[in-house]
Design a protein that fits this description.
Keywords: Signal. This is PQQ-binding-like beta-propeller repeat protein. The chain is mostly beta strands. The protein has three helices and 41 strands. The strands form ten sheets. Strands 1, 2, 3, 4, 39, 40 and 41 form a seven-stranded antiparallel beta sheet that branches. It is globular and about 70 Å long.
Length: 589
């Protein structure tokens, strides 16, 4: 089916910017484009909505209680607040529980168990720590609860669950899950294996600032056992990406972000990719961040892994080809042999990165340079059905998109540069650890084939960044990327002033009921500035709407569309007051 976006001509835009935190909201911005106008509903002088003391790190969620619609915002301090869609006022809320003397810190996007229940993963922190909390506050425990929105309470069917685990490790040691060295940022996802009623929830964790010892952890929660037998039987399986004993991870309490020791955090904000299989099965694809890669020791940092139900994993690599594995320069014969493991690499003729600040010398291999730059993982791939097969589109912190065979993950079809490396000799990269892409692509289907929309960002003042659209095309030599458009167009001046911060995620939603979907996202503003709510024509990259938010927006989150309204999370900073913002699409008279 071809997208048939109406022939919209820009009739002009009056975009009114508001001030910083603490100032009164400005009047409604009105942005017109063709048949529709985008108006701010709240916060305005008439409808200020609700300001929270802490940041709203999660995306807004839509809940219909049988009588009316609510938009939910989960604050960093653990309040699930139900907003009136017309005014933004909070009518009711549910507080996440914590043991006495502990506070709540919530980052991860909850998962819908059914139409009225949410599975929520969060941390507890010292209650005497100065609020609002951020990711660097000590984590005391990691908890999971089920919220019953119909009852407006924590579900009595599921007692609160605390994540705990001890696994076998290398060198005949054991490895215990340490809550102070883990952070749950990724979306919770739910899979339903055959015979399950409720299914299994998956919680993935990395750490903040890569403080050692840290690892990538995944927990599988059997929701049926949890409901029937209690929290003691809920943890069904646990997986660790780098099973090294703590003493192998470097000095306790120091940063390992520029090392390849332990690590492999599963910190992608978009969480695991859950792929449903024919016959009712499923598997997960998880992206492990920086750290130690050594197949001889079952260490899988900087890779994509396919995990089965029960978090079972076997890379399915050729043992002979991978013998005496070289972590600095894995052999092509080895990495191409792996069925359930993808190890990123260069295409023939491509040169390893050489950042302008000189961190990588000419003698360094690709993996040695990635170590110095704190690249490569942090995103979630998207799966694309292509003919009789499928591929994974995987954007990474190094500013590239990788095209990976979904059935045999050792096969890499393409590696496409999305943006340049951050920084120049005269313009230092402001966030050398951040990379240029942390997201999950949005895949849109057109008559010409699938199109991957990938938001990028650039913490310098020299290089272009924004949304990049890549077509996935079949050629005689296999699937390949073809660049279709950028927003803003990279040869325009605004492309080196916009998208300087981590942006939100791209989602598809129509401009009006029954229309073809367009691409919506939030461009997060620079510190002290406002962000923008953007709608793009997926075929051309034309901005259908490009309007100032009241606030800055929030990285990693997506806009939510409910009928003719769009809702976004917005935080001036991770430790500042925040709010939900609401906008409305109305016909032009």
């Amino acid at each position: 089916m071809k997208f048939n976006i109406w022939a919209l001509a820009a009739l002009g835009a009056l975009m009114i910017t508001t001030g910083c935190e603490g100032e009164e909201p400005a009047p409604d911005p009105i942005v017109e484009h063709g048949e529709l106008r985008l108006e701010r509903v709240f916060p305005t002088d008439t409808h200020p909505g609700q300001e929270f003391e802490s940041c709203v790190f999660a995306s807004p969620m839509h809940y219909h209680d049988g009588a009316q619609d609510w938009v939910l915002a989960m604050t960093g301090e653990g309040q699930l607040a139900a907003h009136d869609v017309a005014t933004g006022e909070v009518a009711w809320s549910v507080e996440l529980p914590a043991p006495e003397g502990e506070g709540v810190f919530a980052l991860a996007q909850p998962a819908w168990l059914d139409d009225s229940r949410l599975v929520v993963a969060y941390h507890t922190v010292p209650a005497d720590h100065e609020a609002p909390y951020d990711a660097n506050v000590q984590r005391l425990s990691h908890r999971v609860v089920v919220v019953d929105l119909a009852q407006r309470a924590i579900s009595s069917e599921f007692e609160p669950l605390t994540l705990e685990a001890t696994l076998p490790a290398n060198d005949d040691a054991t490895l215990s899950f340490r809550p102070e060295r883990a952070l749950s940022r990724g979306d919770v996802v739910i899979g339903r294996p055959a015979g399950a009623t409720l299914g299994r929830a998956y919680i993935t964790l990395g750490n903040t600032r890569d403080i050692q010892p840290w690892h990538g952890w995944a927990f599988e929660i059997d929701l049926d056992a949890w409901a029937d037998q209690g929290a003691g039987e809920a943890i069904h399986a646990v997986f660790n990406t780098t099973p090294e004993p703590d003493e192998n991870c470097g000095p306790e309490g120091t940063s390992g972000s520029r090392e390849r020791r332990c690590g492999g955090g599963l910190w992608a904000p978009t969480g695991p990719l859950l792929v449903e299989e024919e016959g009712g099965g499923y598997h997960l694809i998880v992206g492990a961040g920086n750290g130690q890669l050594n197949l001889d020791r079952q260490d899988y940092a900087n890779t994509l892994l396919r995990l089965g139900p029960g978090l079972s994993f076997e890379p399915m690599c050729d043992a002979e080809a991978c013998a005496d594995f070289n972590p600095d320069a894995p052999s092509l014969e080895c990495v191409e042999s792996c069925q359930d493991l993808f190890i990123p690499r260069l295409l023939a003729g491509q040169a390893p990165p050489r950042p302008a600040d000189g961190r990588c010398t000419d003698e360094m291999t690709l993996f040695e340079c990635w170590q110095e730059m704190d690249y490569i993982g942090g995103s979630t791939p998207a799966r694309v059905e292509l003919g009789e097969g499928a591929v994974l589109v995987y954007p990474t912190k190094d500013g590239h998109a990788y095209l990976v065979d979904a059935e045999h993950m050792g096969t890499m079809h393409d590696r496409h540069k999305l943006v340049d490396l951050c920084g120049t000799a005269d313009d230092a990269c402001r966030k050398t650890w951040a990379g240029m892409a942390v997201t999950q692509p949005l895949i849109m289907t057109t008559e010409e084939g699938p199109l991957a929309l990938i938001p990028t960002f650039m913490p310098d003042s020299t290089h272009a960044a924004g949304v990049v659209a890549l077509a996935i095309v079949d050629t005689e030599d296999g699937p390949r990327f073809e660049r279709r458009w950028e927003f803003p167009t990279f040869d325009k001046a605004e492309a080196i002033t916009r998208f300087r911060e981590h942006p939100g995620r791209v989602v598809a939603a129509p401009l009006k009921e029954g229309g073809e979907p367009v691409a919506w996202l939030v461009e997060v503003g620079d510190p002290g500035a406002t962000g923008r709510l953007i709608a793009l024509d997926p075929l051309t990259g034309e901005a259908l709407f490009d309007a100032d938010l009241a606030g800055r927006g929030q990285r990693y989150t997506w806009p939510l569309r409910v009928d003719d309204r769009i809702f976004v999370s917005s935080c001036p900073s991770d430790r500042a007051a925040s709010r939900l913002e609401g906008y409305q699409l109305v016909p032009v008279d």
